[in-house]
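Please, structure for the following, as tokens.
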Amino acid sequence: MKKIALLNFLFLFSICVFAQDRITGLTFATRSEVIAQNGMACTSQPLATQVALDILKSGGNAIDAAIAANAALGLMEPTGNGIGGDLFAIVWDAKTQKLFGLNASGRSPYELTLDYFKENGYEKIPSHGALSVSVPGCVDGWFELHSKFGKLSMADILEPAINYARNGFPVSELIAHYWQSNSRILQKYPGFEEIFMPGGKTPAKGEIFKNPFLANTLEEIANKGRDVFYKGEMAQKMVNYLREQGGFFTLKDFEDHTSEWVEPVSTNYRGYDVWELPPNGQGIAALQMLNILENFDIGSMGFGSPEYMHLFIEAKKLAFEDRAKFYSDPDFNELPTEHLVSKSYGKERAKLIDPNRAGRNYPAGEPDTDNTIYLTTADSEGNMVSLIQSNFRGMGSGMTPGKLGFVLQDRGELFSLEEGHMNVYEPHKRPFHTIIPAFITKEGKPWISFGVMGGDMQPQGHVQIVCNIVDFGMNLQEAGDAPRIEHSGSSQPTGEKMTDGGLVSIETGFSYQTIRSLMEKGHKISYANGPYGGYQAIMWDEKNNVFYGASESRKDGQAAGF
């Protein structure tokens, strides 16, 4: 009887265990995809996702919704973005059936020169303070998007963010953590504590945070347009503050700011066209990696296999050597972009990979010539927006001017001080940029709008998402939930060189046998805390005329539609 009882217990226990596994899809998937007919929004903050949906339901299009969500995120996630930062976007325009790329990144001050850094003993540009600031491009980016594609008025689009800024919103656990972490470094700068540390501390989980200064700023922008930010009293406040803090900006730096519409760049990966924006961003690193990986039968190796992971890591090292050497402001250099993303170049670089050994360093090619937000929206007309926006280094430079309610970015830190380098500091120049939106088309039609935020992780994340979907057959949510890897220690556009092969950080979910195999190949392995990027994606299903949405399970993300 005891034996029968034991067998019955084991049988029932096994049913319970299996019942806890997902009955559809892979076991690591946190939830199903969201599916909707009329519109979709995927952001890293549920309240911002709802703002985007409200805009869509009130007659706005995907572009209006993206701007509205971005404005809300600047308030709700000041740890990653805001109007003191830059913006990049890829837009699928349903009317023309074309992709459009927007580079809304800012430039260095006219009056600051490389000689200043040399004469004052700087080996690199500081990570915080006035010397790290470049002109914020976000607001101009909004108005460029709106003037080309928008439907609703900017007053209607910015109204939800203004209301939340004035009336408050509850801070989430994750953002509260990042907020406190940033404040330890930034609270010493004038203006920061008054706005972002009410009562002398950062808001805790669940506390209501209000930013009336930002509400006033957004209201001015909504009513008076982009010039109030770049040519009016706001610009003068930013200039005065920065000069008081040792900076070199003048009003001319803001008055002369412009965004640029650019042609997205693509490569075809096993029948799918993957699109990125050209430098000064790092998007083409993802294309270079895909061109290298296409020379190998990734699908047969299997997700999580040491063979695939080794090839991925080595492809990343190779692409990042070119990134360190060539990626820079195209207004100052003739960049070999077309050659870098060519199939022949990818095949040539792939030959440098030893399948049994991790490379400690690689040469850059010789061609012929922590924090960010990402969101994506789609509407019933078929428009889709892939948008990324950031302050860099979390909350940015710490420069918090004139009760305007935001922190200025520190993108200028990413210039090199090495004379002759393509990314060397020069006046009125755009620095190398990490934030990149992505898009996939299939046979000339829109398929997936996606992004993976997070510094150097971004092109690595893009490639892992593409491989997860194309090579390993994952659905849109599984592709983002799958455990990720991140290689660090590559050569940098600021001048640092890779000498020891770098470090491979691995999320939990990979087998010990895989990790041991990678170590035997010479990879240095770490179980780091992450965050391994932040993913959002929308996929258009032409057959059923529906949108699929997916969101990052490692953050507060929400995909929602109607």
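The two ends are 56 Å apart (CA to CA). The mean pLDDT is 93.
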